[in-house]
């Protein structure tokens, strides 16, 4: 089946990669068991005894923080009869205890005590512990890898460490954490957020306040990004597709669309700045965009965020970063909107989608991590753009299941990141 599934040299992608249960099983065997993946944020396990569960397929991983403050990761299966010790998030005062027969484990996974240990005699192996999992951190994210022989996280991340260093993701904090199950393969969901080609058709309401044609795409060894063309200056202009004459351009409406239309990507205080500019206008001799960028710089500086590494235009532009294999989203100075997408068990037709909004903390407000909100994608009141994306994903998966489309043909430039994902995936699955 490898040749049937493998992506083609011309970039074409086999539809079966999104629909075949056997391909999904191969991913669990050769991708998810070997790749670094984000289990959560460090702030979700801030204190000794805090525990975070991460599930990928049938595997369950516990991330813990011991009494010395060190992070550990281990498989969430008691060595007695395999029962999970913790589900989702939690806190333990002293140790991990199996709810089935009461065996206990230290916070680093070492077996502490066995109930009625004398009954076992010498039948229990020395050094018995919860199976360890590789764990490392970057940017405030906790990464885990089920492969004990995996390369170091820094090697895996490659150029992302330098690219994202000025954003200080480690000092940002979660403002929102929302989970839903979507009716599409996990790769279809990642694909949808990894290109701008669909904006002109699926999100036409965005075109009046963004130039979707000035997007460039760059692929690294395994990761990728997209954003504005190098050296391109951000201006408050609609998409050239609309052919709006310069005399009819409403810059304030475009700025409002930019700040309000990107959901949680901009801070609450920045939305207030737009209202002030509508009321008072920009200072004499200053453009509307320049005034907003200056206010954004002052706001971030007041919060303690060093923005000296960013040019003015970068303050209102994003790095849309794809972290192979399953995290994607725009990162701005001071805020980020990220999507982590995972298979929903062994079902190739659904995916678990986690939406995380990060922001530079405002010390005057509560900065404790929010509880993860689990919602039904059909019933939750999404913003218009997200609703369009999710409705479309249901249609796309239904169309691929139809059986009449054997190969997909991505745009070689504007969907280059999509092609890249599948070629990297092939390296894990077939090489």
Helix content: 25-40%
The CATH superfamily of the largest domain is identified as Naphthalene 1,2-dioxygenase Alpha Subunit, Chain A, domain 1
Strand content: 15-25%
Can you tell me the overall shape? globular
Can you count the helices?
A: 12
- Kindly provide the name of the CATH class of the largest domain: Alpha Beta
Strand arrangement in the largest pleated sheet? 13-14-15-16-17-18-12-19
Structural class by secondary-structure content: alpha+beta
Poorly predicted regions are none
Return the CATH architecture of the largest domain.
Alpha-Beta Complex
End-to-end separation in angstroms reads 14 Å
State the major sheet.
Answer: 8 strands, mixed
Number of domains: 2
- The chain-level mean pLDDT equals 92
CATH names the topology of the largest domain as Naphthalene 1,2-dioxygenase Alpha Subunit, Chain A, domain 1
**What is the total tally of β strands?**
20
Radius of gyration: 24 Å
């Amino acid at each position: 089946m490898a040749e049937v599934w493998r992506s083609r040299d011309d970039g074409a992608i086999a539809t079966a990669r999104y629909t075949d249960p056997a391909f999904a099983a191969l991913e669990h065997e050769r991708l998810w068991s070997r790749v670094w993946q984000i289990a959560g944020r460090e702030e979700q396990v801030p204190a000794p005894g805090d525990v975070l569960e991460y599930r990928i397929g049938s595997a369950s991983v516990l991330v813990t923080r011991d009494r010395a403050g060190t992070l550990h990761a281990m498989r969430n299966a008691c060595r007695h009869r395999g029962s999970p010790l913790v589900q989702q998030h939690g806190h333990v005062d002293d140790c991990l205890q199996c709810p089935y027969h009461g065996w206990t484990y230290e916070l680093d996974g070492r077996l502490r005590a066995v109930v009625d240990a004398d009954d076992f005699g010498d039948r229990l192996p020395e050094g018995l512990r919860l199976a360890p999992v590789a764990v490392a951190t970057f940017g405030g994210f906790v990464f885990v890898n089920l492969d004990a022989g995996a390369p170091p996280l820094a090697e895996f991340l490659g150029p992302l460490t330098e690219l994202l260093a000025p954003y200080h993701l480690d000092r940002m904090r979660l403002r929102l954490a929302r989970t839903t199950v979507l009716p599409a393969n996990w790769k279809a969901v990642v694909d949808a957020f990894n290109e701008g080609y669909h904006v002109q058709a699926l999100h036409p309401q965005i075109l009046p306040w963004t130039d979707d044609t000035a997007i460039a795409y760059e692929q690294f060894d395994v990761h990728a990004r997209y954003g504005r063309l190098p050296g391109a200056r951000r201006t408050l202009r609609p998409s050239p597709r609309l052919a709006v004459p310069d005399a009819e351009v409403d810059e304030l409406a475009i700025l409002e669309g930019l700040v309000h239309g990107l959901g949680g990507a901009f801070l609450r205080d920045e939305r207030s700045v737009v209202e002030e500019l509508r009321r008072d206008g920009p200072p004499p001799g200053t453009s509307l965009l320049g005034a907003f960028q200056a206010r954004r710089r002052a706001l971030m500086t007041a919060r303690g965020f060093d923005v000296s590494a960013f040019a003015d235009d970068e303050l209102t532009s994003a790095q849309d970063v794809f972290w192979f294999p399953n995290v994607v989203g725009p990162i701005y100075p001071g805020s980020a909107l990220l999507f982590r997408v995972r298979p929903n068990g062994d079902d190739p037709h659904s995916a678990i989608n986690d939406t995380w909004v990060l922001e530079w903390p405002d010390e005057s407000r509560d900065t404790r991590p929010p509880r993860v909100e689990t919602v039904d994608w059909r019933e939750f009141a999404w913003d218009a753009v997200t609703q369009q994306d999710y409705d479309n994903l249901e249609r796309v998966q239904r169309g691929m299941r139809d059986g009449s489309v054997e190969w997909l043909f991505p745009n070689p430039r504007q969907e280059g990141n999509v092609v890249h994902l599948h070629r990297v995936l092939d390296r894990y699955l077939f090489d």
